[in-house]
Amino acid sequence: DDTEYLKGRYVPDEDMVVFHLDELEELPGKLKMLLEDKEKRERIAEKGWRKACENETWDSRAREFLRLCEE
Hints:
Elements: H1 27-36, H2 38-55, H3 58-70
C-alpha cells in the first residue's frame, strides 16, 4: 500500500510497485504486468534495491530523527 513515507522517496513503477487500498481493483492488472514483463520487473527490483541500500540505513534514519528533533 502507498504511504506518506514512500511518497517523495520512491517513484511508483520505477523504484517500486505500489497499490492503493481504495483501488484494489487495479492490483490484478499490476501483478499481471509484472509477471508478463520480466525485464520491467527486474529493472524495478534493481532500482528499488539500490535506492533502499543507499537511503534506508541506520545512519540515514538517525539523521532523519535528529532533523525531526531539531524542528
